[in-house]
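The freezer alarm interrupted the setup, so I double-checked each line after restarting. Inputs confirmed:
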Amino acid sequence: MNYGDGIKLVYRNLVRRKGRTILTALGVAIGTAAIVAMIALALGLQTNALKSFENFQDVTTIQVYPGGDQSQPGQEAKILNKQTVAQLKGIQGVSGILASLEVYSDMELSMGRKVGNGTIVGVETKDAQSYPFKFHQGRFLKSRNEAVVSYQVPESMQEKKRSSRKNKDENLAMGPYVTGKRTEMLNKTVTLTIRKMDDQQNISQKEYKFKVVGVLSQDEGRGESAIYIPIETAREIQRWTGQNNGPAQAGNGKDGYSTVKVKASSRDTVEGVAAEIKKIGYQAWSPAESLKEMNKFFMIVQLILGGIGAISLLVASIGIMNTMFMSILERTREIGIMKVIGAGIPDIRRLFLLESGLIGFMGGISGLGIAFGVTAIINAIARAKGAGNMFGGEPIGNLAIIPIWLALFAVGFAVVVGIIAGLMPAYRAARISPLQAIRQE
Amino acid sequence: MEQIVVDGVDHTFHMGRVDIPVLFGVNLIVQKGEFLSLCGSSGSGKSTLLNLLGGLMKASKGEIYINDHQIGRYTENELCHFRRENLGFIFQSYNLIPSMTAFENVELPLLFAGVSGNERRDRVEEMLIKVGLEDRMQHRPNEMSGGQQQRVAIARALISRAPIILADEPTGNLDSKTGREIMNMMRELNAENDKTIVMVTHDLAQARLSDRIVYMQDGKITDEEVLQ
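Predicted 3D structure, all chains:
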């Protein structure tokens, strides 16, 4: 017997016992719907979380820190300097290196009547040329009197109204002050005013003038408010202020850096590059590592939620088995007759497996329908309550997502569950003797 | 040509610990194209003999050859295939599948034989017309009379073109007029299509319509009568 004829025959049988078929398939439908809805929810959470994460983090950037264990005697710290940069250049998959020295001092950025703030970051102008910065406007600095600011800086510029110290401190504490209004800074000259206080509480100040030649794109160093200037000037400021509170002691040396950023050529090469950097002896951290952890976590969430759904499908499979055994009892004579008129053992087995598989299929399809309905409701509620924004950032898509693979997998899984549940009944049915046909009732 | 050979067959039913012997040393030869009646009172073993011929059970002792196949050696699955090609069955209680129409019941053996859809339809329609049920094709068994149901069963037995028909009291549930119609139909089958028929009956009047009557009593063949 071929499968097409078998399915027709089986379909007729199922229609004949509509009520029972529907109830059995309903069990499968609920199980399938549970699995799909649960996994859809997990997938939605994951997608949203990752999207939010990527909104704040540039996943291809690796932060390099000084290495070595300085607490151990005899262990020299691996500081960040020119040699470091040379070593990092040799790593495959590195598309750019930005060695910088951050200067923390009492400073003010001014342009005409407007003042703003930011962190002074000194960079090696030669190396920085090859670093793949994305620009909102302009280009990277090339000479001593040029500066580049990050995207947030023009937003922080505002009219100088009160010059009381207290107020300015508050502004600093709040970080980049975002008013939404951007001040055009490109090709304008800005003044950096650095102040220091000596032991006698005398305040002296020094001014540096730069021409802003570039504004970085929003994607670059999210949330950062940096003013990039040539490293030579940064060292000069550091020396003048006598500041000694960099994140790494090494940064205060003659040619040391406080941070080195390495840009990997792509998302896929990040981990390899980070591993190489660690092998050389530095510490490296990239958002990709957190991403990996996050993915692992969401995989577990999916497994747990999917597992909860799978339990209901397991219960449904017991329902299928029960229905199939009932069906055999009712049809013992019929099976006997079929055997008398020429049905082989494989034919009978196939008929019953097709029947349970078909119940699984019908349940799977209706379950998928239910799941689509449920997720639509979840998404509508989530939208209404603004839960799509639960991780912050720009408004994100649906809370529950059913990708095509999940839909196909769910129906396929329901069919497989149906067939597995039908195995025992099918083998039992195939063993029924043809003598049953002639037994008089 | 000897189509069915029964050689020294004993058969014993095992009911728990009790053994009930029902056939003792039965020998029988049926020629191709012969219409044979097995007659005897109930308990004579005639139905058991028929079931053994159909491969529905295995003889405790002795051998049965059908078309030179030693069917006692076949596995159950081989027997299913063997039946499909060699044997058609007609039962007293028709044994149609109640949920299926006359057409579907007759079609079933062809489904298992893997015959294609178009050929199946043609053959089933032809067969149902032949047994006079052209206007009953889409009726279910419970919508038909006993005689009509038995004609569906005959059509089903014939559809796979098996050379041998085994009939167990085919008219047992029918009134005498309908019974005669069915007997005439069997007679025609035998004459026109050269089918070998082995029929179990306890109705001597009907047995007399066959070529030969074999009488059984207490598990043994006691007598036989060749008719003209």
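Quick read of the result. The mean pLDDT of chain B is 91.
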